Amino acid sequence: MEEGSFVTAINCIDGRVQLPVINWLHEEYGVDYVDMITEPGPNLILADEEDKATIKSIKNRVEVSTKKHNSELIAVIGHYDCAANLADKTTQIEQIKDSIELVNSWNLGVEIIGLWVNRDWQVETVV
């Protein structure tokens, strides 16, 4: 049986954003599987860099995905109406950018992108 290709999503636990993100990553990157690493408001957690234990846990799970599944892409996601991150879209976009910087500092040798899930549950890229 062939293993298949993987990407990694650092996503919110909110069930409304799971399928839009998975479907978008399948369509845009043509991968077979999405390793989903979920936390409430992960862009806030990573951007603030205060909750060291949770960040370490996220990093450990990302490393399993990149090392064991050979994931070549990590997406950091924020979304509209997040119960754990009450910041507006503009602030959350900045948090996603800061999160990308942090994840990039882990030197995993993979592409890292940011995604925003809007009020219509559509995925937008964060530049």
At a glance:
This protein is of the alpha/beta class.
Can you describe this structure?
The protein is globular, with a radius of gyration of 13 Å. The chain is of the alpha/beta class. The chain is built from 4 helices and 5 strands. 41% of the residues lie in helices and 25% in strands. It has a single domain (6-126), classed as Carbonic anhydrase (Beta-carbonic Anhydrase, Chain A).
Average pLDDT level: 96
Give the uncertain stretches in residue-range form: none
Would you report the number of β strands? Answer: 5
Architecture, according to CATH?
3-Layer(aba) Sandwich
Identify the overall geometry: globular
Detail the topology: elements first, then pairings.
Layout: E1 6-12, H1 18-29, E2 33-39, H2 42-48, H3 52-68, E3 73-79, H4 89-104, E4 111-117, E5 123-126
Parallel strand pairs: 1-2, 1-3, 3-4
Antiparallel strand pairs: 4-5
For this entry, give a set of tags:
127 residues, alpha/beta, Beta-carbonic Anhydrase, Chain A, 5-stranded mixed β-sheet, 4 helices, 41% helix
